[in-house]
Amino acid sequence: MSVDSTTVAVSASAGASAPAGQKHNNASPTRVGGFKLTKRHTVTAGGSIAVLIIFLAAWQWLPGWLGMPEFILPKFTTVMQESVHMWQTGNFLEHFGYTALEVVLGFILGALLGLFVGVVLGLSPTTESVLSPYILALQIAPKVAFAPLFVMWLGYTIYPKILVALLIVFFPIMVNVLSAIRTVDPDMVNLVRTLNASRWQIFRLVEFPSALPSLFSGLRIGATLAVIGVTVGELVGGNKGLGFLLVDAEGQGNTAGVFVSIIGLTVIGIIAYAVVVWFERRCLHYIPKATVTTA
């Protein structure tokens, strides 16, 4: 029997041996668009919407009650009017797409580099001992300081922003993958070795799958950090993107325009995070979720 078929059989038997007395909290969930909609999800969504409504109401009315001028803190409706104006001029959508592209490229490249370096260091303690001081020094160095240097080297192009995002995304993913590779269950490794598995098969069937939860934890962090990295690059040396719009609005004293740019950056970060969570649920659906039941 091959290593692959044996591993599949073991996984299948493990999945089928769930405790007979286990109770499920979310019985008979309603499916909406392929997702299971439970009572807990409904309550959570309702609470989130209520918090959002309270926040927007406070944003709309508190500045007037506190006597704050519009150029300090504009009302929510003023910000929305400015967003409509920026949308109608055609500039906002172009800059939004430019920043989103930089975030996607910086995140993907940083994730791939972090995954590769984390695997290499995790599988080779000697390599980790040699390279870890330099990687740590690179992480300690403030990324904002690299942005002007990248602009001097590469000009006012897309590349400095991607590089800053790459540097920020790289470290958390690398550390998570490295720790996961180092903490793989040795019994699982020995089990596969008894089946005469090659080094590649051990990595593919045991080590890499075991590292996936930690990898996705790093990807969640990296998805938000990528937006920060791109924004820093655009603030320092950008002629396009939401960071550039933010600086331009600030120079004109357009506080509402600054808020529109900030909201746009936040939306990009939320979308990036949601995409990572979506992929995580698809890839790690086999991992049981801990539930708390009440009598």
Automatic annotation (TrEMBL):
The keyword NAD does not apply. CDD domains: TM_PBP2. InterPro entries: MetI-like, MetI-like_sf. Belongs to the binding-protein-dependent transport system permease family. Pfam families: BPD_transp_1 (PF00528). One of its GO terms (cellular component) is plasma membrane. Residues 96-277 form the ABC transmembrane type-1 domain. It comes from Pusillimonas noertemannii. PROSITE patterns: ABC_TM1. One of its GO terms (biological process) is transmembrane transport. It is found in: Cell membrane. The chain crosses the membrane at residues 43-62, 103-123, 135-156, 162-184, 205-236, 256-279. Keywords: Cell membrane, Membrane, Transmembrane, Transmembrane helix, Transport. It is a multi-pass membrane protein. This is NitT/TauT family transport system permease protein.
